[in-house]
Amino acid sequence: MDLEGKSLKGMFIKYIIPSIVAQWVYILYTVVDGIFVARGVGEMALTAVNIITPFTLGMFSLSITMAVGASTIVAIKLGEKDERGAKEVFSQNILLNIIVSVVVTIGVFLNLDGFARFLGATEANMLYVTEYLKGLAPFAFSFILSYSFEMLVKTDGFPQIAVWVVTAGSALNIFLDWLLVIVFPFGVYGAAFATGVSNTVVILLYLIHFFGKKGTIKFCSFKWRWGYVWRIFRNGLSSGITDFSSGIIVFFFNRAIIQYLNEESLIAYTIVTYVQCLALYTMVGISQGYQPLIGYCFGAGEKKKCRALLKYGIAAALVFTVLIVGVCEIFARPIVTMFIANTAENSALIDYSAGVFRIFSLSYLFIGLNVVPSGYFMSVEESSYASIISTSRGIAALLIFLVLFILIWGGPGIWWSPLAAEAATLILTVYFLIRYENREEKSCAL
Question: Which pLDDT score is estimated for 407?
Answer without folding.
Answer: 93
